[in-house]
Every structure is written in C-alpha cells, then in structure tokens.
Amino acid sequence: MTSLIAAYLAWIVSQTGLTAPHHPTIHSVTPAEMAQRYGAPESNALEFQALYSHEDRKIYLPEDWRSDSLKNRSALLHELVHHVQRENNVQAPCKAALERQAYDLQMKWLREQGVDDAYAIVGTNELTIYMVSTCRDDS
Predict the structure, then answer these.
(1) Kind of pairing, strands 51-53 and 58-62?
(2) pLDDT digits (tens, 9 = 90+) for 8-25
(3) Structural domain contains residue 79
(4) Which of 60, 71, 81, 137 is the most buried (most CB within 10 A)?
(5) Assigned domain for 139 exists
(6) N-terminal to C-terminal alpha carbon distance within the chain
(7) Which pLDDT band holds residue 137 (cuts at 50, 70, 90)?
(8) How far apart are CA 1 and CA 131, in angstroms?
(9) d(CA 48, CA 130)
(10) DSSP readout, 10-59?
(11) Largest pairwise CA distance in the chain
(12) Cα dihedral angle (37, 104, 119, 29), rounded to 10 degrees?
C-alpha cells in the first residue's frame, strides 16, 4: 500500500503543482462505520467508496477495498487529493468546493488507465459532481 500511495501522491503533485505531504494513515472500516463517520444514515452505508477526515487527516476505506479494482484505487486517489489539499492549506469558499478538483483528477486518472467512461466506473455523473461540489448556505 505504501508504494501505491507514494505513486498516487507523486501523480497528484505532478497534476496540481502542490507539495507532496507525508502519507496519511489508512484505516479499514465496516460500511456502517463509514456511514457513521460521514454522518449519514446506516442505510446509505454501501454508497461510500472511501472517506477522508480533514480533522484527523486519515483515510477510511471499506473492509472490502481491493487494490486490483480500478474503482477502489480511484477512490483512494480521490481521498489522497483531499489529503494533499488539506496539507497544502488549499483555500476554498466551502468544504464542498474541494470536491471539484478531487473528482476532476479522479476522472483524469481513470481515463489515463484506459477507461472510456470514468463516470460509470465511479457510479456518478457530471450533474452529481456539480451538486456535491457546490457551496450551500449550510456547508
């Protein structure tokens, strides 16, 4: 996992020009724990592919995360983007706005891996990304 994280951080830095941070701590958690950490109902537990905690600078991956899955690896890359943002004190009008860069880099990385429809692999679309990356009064 250490070499995978190092490779992803190097790629993110090459794309953003930001400084490479130390490796974050990675925790494997149950779907219920993932939902709890996200503040979502447990019924939504299977929706979460990965999670970055800005407060404790840790990445949480589901127990069934596999390094041979492009979807899983892209989720790790997405959360590493948030770690790079956090460690470089990237400023945004709200926390949600940080999602745009993370999704854009995730999609770019997937396309570089030969994926034709990166949105399908992740299970999202441009409208959803727009919605989750838009600042709201309560974000």
Answers:
(1) antiparallel
(2) 999 999 999 999 999 999
(3) yes
(4) 81
(5) no
(6) 33
(7) confident
(8) 32
(9) 18
(10) HHHHHHH-PPP-PPPEEEEE-HHHHHHHHT--GGGGGG-S-EEETTTTEE
(11) 40
(12) -20
Q: Find the domain containing 9 and state its range.
A: 2-132
Residues 6+ apart with CB under 8 A from 70: 110, 113, 115, 121
In the chain, DSSP finds a helix count (H) and a strand count (E) of 6, 3
- Count structural domains, the chain: 1
pLDDT at 31 > cutoff 80: no
How many CB atoms sit inside 10 A of residue 12's CB? Answer: 22
Which two structure tokens, joined as six digits, stand for 109?
């990385």
* pTM over cut 0.85: yes
| Residue 53 within any structural domain of the chain | yes
Neighbours of 62 (CB within 10 A): 20
CATH of the domain at 33: 3.30.2010
